[in-house]
Specification:
The complex is a heterodimer of chains A (about 120) and B (about 220).
Chain A lengths: L1 H9 L2 H13 L15 E16 L2 E9 L4 E7 L12 E11 L2 E5 L2 E4 L2
Chain B lengths: L1 E5 L3 H12 L3 E6 L2 H9 L6 E4 L5 H5 L8 E4 L4 H13 L5 E6 L16 E4 H13 L4 E7 L4 E7 L20 E8 L2 E3 L12 E6 L4 H9 L1
Parallel strand pairs in B: 1-2, 1-4, 2-3, 4-5, 5-6
Antiparallel strand pairs in B: 7-8, 8-11, 9-10, 9-11
Chain lengths: ~120, ~220
């Protein structure tokens, strides 16, 4: 029992965090973000880790970063600076077509569902 | 590379022909079946033709957009070109979307907001090239890339320009600016640090928008 405790205490915080995130999205049965298909319609589930308003050419975009413990994905909402109900810590389901952009999975204007 | 050209007008047909000659895999999608039949008869046989509305996701998909490397929206209608660009980017995540601007008034909309990576406006290009030929002592914008984040501009130096007589290494050009070529008479000079600028030189510079002003100051005063 003590051994289990020691293991728990000495694990890197990143591992604990990704395990927590994995537990949180488990019940959806969605494909992990790390294995999500590129350029095909996909459903991604994750916890909102960050919101960023980014000036893109021609206007602003809202970039929402979600994490499911396997990897991160970025949803780009063009022309938006906020989305009602989308805050850090919320669980989000995104449906869209992703592609790799500078090493991250980016989904442009996905359909989104706030789960909690 | 796999390229989808939307619109089989004279522009689309020519682009498709050129690209296929360059060894690319080209599909042209056009709504008008009669136009396709006409274009097909005297075009390169390696081009694949699809009759369909590229503004409609399901019909656009028939052209095989999900595996395309580039989509070129070159119809004669700016609204259609914008819709095609947005669909290509949003529904098919096409890495590179090139769109044709027919009316220069609409050019401001052809940005990343509508999924456009590069826009080409023929009237604007012609204006720029005419200006480039006739203006001296001012900066003429020739092309912009990456949604306006990089620009290729040209400056023709005059006797009174501050940059005349100094070499490139000693010019206090800002970091976001590079001299990419110097046209001196009939010669094109690939610039080096020790290249000395002369009056009458056409200097081609690649700049970011925020240092454009500073570049003008250094080169032309």
């Amino acid at each position: 029992m003590l051994k289990g405790l020691r293991e728990k205490l000495s694990r890197p915080i990143e591992d604990i965090e990704s395990e927590r995130l994995r537990d949180r999205v488990e019940d959806f049965g969605a494909v992990p973000i790390a294995e999500a298909p590129r350029r095909r319609p996909a459903v991604l589930v994750g916890e909102v880790q960050g919101l960023q308003v980014v000036p893109r050419a021609g206007g602003t975009s809202l970039e929402v970063t979600i994490d499911d413990g396997s990897a991160r994905a970025v949803a780009v909402f063009t022309g938006r600076s906020r989305l009602g109900g989308v805050y850090v810590g919320r669980r989000l389901v995104l449906e869209g077509v992703g592609r790799d952009e500078r090493g991250r999975l980016v989904v442009l204007n996905p359909a989104y569902t706030i789960v909690e | 590379m796999r390229v989808i050209v939307a619109g089989a007008g004279s522009v689309g047909t020519h682009i498709a022909g050129d690209l296929v000659k360059a060894g690319h895999d080209v599909v042209v999608i056009e709504i008008d079946g009669a136009r396709v039949a006409e274009a097909q008869s005297d075009a390169d046989s390696r081009i694949t033709w699809v009759v369909g509305d590229a503004c409609e996701v399901s019909e656009f998909a028939r052209a095989g957009v999900e595996s395309a490397d580039v989509v070129a929206a070159v119809t004669g209608d700016d609204e259609d070109n914008l819709v095609i660009s947005l669909l290509a980017k949003q529904e098919f995540a096409v890495p590179r979307v090139v769109a044709r601007v027919n009316n220069p008034k609409n050019e401001w909309m052809f940005t990343e907001m509508w999924g456009v990576d590069v826009s080409v406006s023929t009237p604007h290009l012609i204006t720029a090239l005419v200006e480039e030929a006739v203006s001296v002592g001012t900066l003429v914008r020739l092309l912009s890339f990456e949604g306006g984040r990089a620009r290729l501009s040209e400056a023709t130096l005059v006797e009174s320009s501050p940059a005349v007589g100094s070499d490139l290494a000693e010019l206090p050009l800002p970091r976001g600016c590079t001299v990419v070529a110097i046209v001196r008479g009939d010669h094109v000079i690939v610039p080096r640090g020790d290249t000395v600028l002369r009056s009458g030189d056409e200097v081609l510079v690649l700049t970011t928008p925020d240092v454009e002003e500073e570049t003008v100051q250094v080169l032309l005063g």
